[in-house]
Amino acid sequence: MSARRADTHRHENVTDWLDQMDVPYWHPSEIKTGSSSLGDQLRTAVQKCSVCVFVATHASVRSSWCGAELGAFWGASVPIIV
Predict the structure, then answer these.
(1) Global confidence as pTM
(2) FRET label pair with 47: which of 21, 31, 38, 39, CA 20 to 30 Å apart?
(3) φ and ψ of 28, to 5 deg
């Protein structure tokens, strides 16, 4: 999941619920510098996901980064929940 600063509280609402339900998820804080490229890390994360939860806000739908992430999930045939 990625979140813009304006949507941090919305992102945290979702991740808090996932934590309460013991649902594993990938968090951007898991990005490791120096180990492999950001692209490789994101591709690996997308491939391990069974579903993408996209929190659609004014900021997220205008974000080219969020659009690229959605495209990655779509390209990997991972279901997307909006």
Answers:
(1) 0.76
(2) 21
(3) -55, -25
- Alpha-carbon distance of 46 to 15, in angstroms, equals 17
Could you give the count of Cα atoms lying within 13 Å of 39 in the half-sphere of its Cβ? 1
Q: Are 80 and 52 in contact (CB under 8 A)?
A: yes
79 phi and psi angles, rounded to 5 deg = -60, 145
Tokens for 72, please give them: 């990655």
Q: Which residues, 6+ apart, have CB-to-CB distance to 51 below 8 Å?
A: 78, 79, 80, 81
Q: Are 79 and 52 in contact (CB under 8 A)?
A: yes
